[in-house]
Write a structure and sequence with these properties.
19% strand, 15 helices, D-Maltodextrin-Binding Protein, domain 2, 2 domains
């Protein structure tokens, strides 16, 4: 059964969420969908002239995939605003980015790590240790709808219109006695190779990162060739992580990094079809913002279920001094990567404001190094 589930779970892992409703069950989303109508509850009116938008869309299962099915449903909602979505489904995320850059589609849905090349500000949301809880993620997503930040989402000709949560990636270790940064030093850790930033981060923590694609990144951990693994809870069962964790393993309960997906548009291409592109983007943001909390409730319920499906015995609560040292190590790594130009400085300030709004007495809130 597990090998049957593995392929669709890889698709889920690589794409994450198509939009804020994608991880909710279709039946749960229907009540919200009925309310998403032009001129209702503060939403903007439909556009007089229709515009067709081609979207390069990743689904490992191609046109038969679950995410493509969800995308078509969401496309029907967009039609209410005279926005006609034409999905170009591809089973390779790198190909999605390549086709998007080549102008073969007007927009793309892909992981934020891949999307960073199109806009560094929004593409830096997935910085290590920057979003410690889903409470922080919810506040960040509200913050990103501030009109003052919208210009920062544009790196002509591209714009990341929205970022959507997928779930946290946690540090899995083969021996739960490894609770200190000193004990983690020089240990091999397997990470997914979507982008070099996560591997760089783990190396700066003193570990030795081993990067592999989504189909094989858990293998070194399960076979004993790696001492640790950075992965989200959704892959525990399909990738049989109990093989790597065994009886002595554990999972740090503080995330290394959050996973998100992004919707990116090519503004130049869309302006040729619709000069009022900014109005249409505003309509999309208004639609998303209006129902954001309800949609996030459903997404986070799904994420919470995935995490509760992992046996409770594996989750580790570090001693306070070890937890503080771990979070500080992540923070220093984030600062170093920002100085090296990997992360966007302004987004790091936004993320810090979010953390300090929730925990105003945290030591980082009294210094200016981010």
């Amino acid at each position: 059964m597990l090998h049957i589930l593995k392929k669709p779970m890889q698709s889920l892992f690589k794409l994450g969420v198509l939009c804020l409703a994608a991880q909710a069950n279709a039946a749960d989303f229907l009540p919200l969908a009925k309310d998403i109508q032009p001129n209702i509850k503060g939403l903007p009116p439909a556009f007089v002239q229709p515009v067709k938008i081609s979207i390069c869309f990743f689904d490992m299962q191609g046109s038969t995939g679950e995410f493509y099915s969800r995308a078509k449903d969401l496309g029907l909602i967009a039609r209410r605003w005279n926005i006609i979505a034409d999905f170009k489904v591809l089973p390779d995320e790198a190909k999605v980015a390549e086709n998007f850059k080549a102008g073969k589609c007007d927009a793309a849905v892909l992981s934020t790590l891949h999307a960073r090349e199109f806009n560094k500000f929004m593409g830096s949301v997935d910085a290590v240790g920057a979003i410690p809880t889903y409470e922080h993620m919810r506040l960040l997503l509200r913050t990103l709808f501030d009109p003052k930040l919208e210009p920062l989402t544009i790196s002509e000709p591209y714009q990341i219109v929205s970022v959507f949560p997928v779930g946290a990636q946690y540090l899995h270790i083969k021996d739960r006695s490894m609770e200190t940064m000193e004990q983690l030093k020089s240990k091999k850790v397997s990470v997914i190779n979507w982008d070099s930033s996560l591997a760089n981060a783990m190396n700066k923590l003193g570990m030795e990162a081993v990067a592999a694609d989504v189909g094989g990144f858990t293998k070194p951990f399960n076979t004993g060739d790696a001492d640790a693994l950075v992965a989200p809870s959704m892959v525990y069962w399909p990738y049989e992580l109990k093989q790597g964790l065994g009886d002595k393993g554990g999972i740090y309960s503080t995330p290394v990094v959050q996973m998100t997906a992004s919707l990116v548009i090519n503004r130049d291409a869309l302006k040729k079809k619709s000069p009022d592109i900014d109005s249409r983007v505003a309509a999309f943001r208004a639609m998303t913002g209006q129902f954001q909390d309800e949609m996030l409730d459903k997404i986070f319920n799904t994420i919470d279920k995935n995490e509760k499906d992992v046996p409770k015995k594996y989750w580790m609560i570090l001693e306070p001094e070890h937890e503080q040292a771990y979070q500080e190590a992540l923070r220093q790594t984030r600062i170093h990567l920002t100085k090296e130009g990997v992360y966007d400085v302004t987004m790091m300030k936004v993320l810090k404001k979010v953390r300090c709004k929730i925990s105003p007495n945290a030591p980082e809130c009294s210094n200016n190094d981010e």
